[in-house]
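Researcher: Before we compare anything, I want clean individual predictions. No alignment, no superposition, just each chain on its own. First chain goes here; please echo the sequence and then give the structure tokens.
Model: Echoing the first chain and its structure:
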Amino acid sequence: MMLKLNLLFVAILFSYTYAADPISCKAVQYTSTFNDNEQFNVTSSASFSLTINNGTTYVTATNISVINLITNEQATGVCYYGVCCNITTTNSCTFDVRDTFVLLYANFTNNVTFTTFQGLVADDGTFSTTKLFSSTNMCLNSFSNDSGTISNHSICCTSSTLAPVAAINAPQCKKFKSRTTIYNINDNFSIFATTQLIWEIIGRTIVPSGFTDTAQHYFACYFDHSFFNLPLACDELLTVHNNITMSNDTDAKTLVSVFYLPKSLTIAGINGILTARLLYRNNQLLMSEGTPFTPQNNCWYSNAPWYPSPANHSTSVSFCCQEF
């Protein structure tokens, strides 16, 4: 009987590990097509690898190819936040990923630009999209057809390590509060701006409320990387709130950044600050791989520079569960 019980325990343990089976993806192969039947019929492909050095995440793109089949023209370069790389002279481009979103702009001749490699995220030491990789799901695919504008993306993990598994099954958080602060480094770390937002989690839907912002020369917007056309909250003219439904996949990830947009054209820069991370593994809500929100450990914290003036400003973020 003891032998049967031990075998049963091993079987249950193996089954649980297999079900969770999270991985940290360190390299991907990305291929995509985009066709609007007018200006662009673009095929894009590249290999991406991720490294972390002194707390900064770097992404290196190699074997980059972006071709517009309508004009039979290849892109001459790709850019990330104004940092550009000429892909006609080099086949390796490295960018420091400032707000987790790997979003590149391809340059063609005659000042034509095209947004490519959308949806790829480099965060918490791993690649993802709105979905998370696992050893049984090594390719994340998406397809859309919006009034004849067709896009198709395939991102396959090519190198990975095992990710930690949550040791406990924690209670589900019902309400969060996020606070993002920008400090003036050269003025004794005085506060430049602060934004706050309340998040109620109903199923997989985020219901925001209580948005406040103290920035004087900017207005602030919370954007999820897959919903750039629909901000979670924004104070451009008056404060608006929009519900956002997160991915229903068993292994899913939602990242939200605060973008400070200039009220005056004399102030340049669009600046994303990662302000919230929500992971679902086996329907358990986590703040990072293997770490759930609990009453004893209810906050996720982050510190980072603020672009485009990292020498003058720093940021501090707290994302805390207020109610379980």
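Researcher: Okay. Second chain, same rules.
Model: Second chain and its structure:
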Amino acid sequence: MAIESVGGSILSKIAELLVEPTIRQFRYMFCFNNFVQEFNEQKKNLALTLDRLQNAVEVAERNAEEIEKDVNKWLEDAKNEIEGVNRLENEKGKNSKCFNWCPNWIPQFKLSKALAKKIETLKKLEENRP
């Protein structure tokens, strides 16, 4: 009986370690449009936050107030990320279909993976804004 429970727990752990990464990889291939939509939303949110903070900094500078270093660093990081987003935008806009009717899976997979990483980066950047 003890051996069966140990064997069952080992099998469940193996299944857990194998199934989740496999599902994630398939998700990159088959949920491309979801990644694109979420990427566009995150890009828009970051751009709005950047504009709002940039306007607040300009007002503070006109009032001769000192701008803190973390605010300037966040603005610089956000601008750099927006530039990186523009490169992905160009990649996303390319025609990724073979024979104009079926998706070209390898570039779509790579782009989905890159979009997922960029989405996480944009989320972290927006959460850490001053």
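Researcher: What stands out in the second chain?
Model: The mean pLDDT is 81. Additionally, The longest helix spans residues 32-62.
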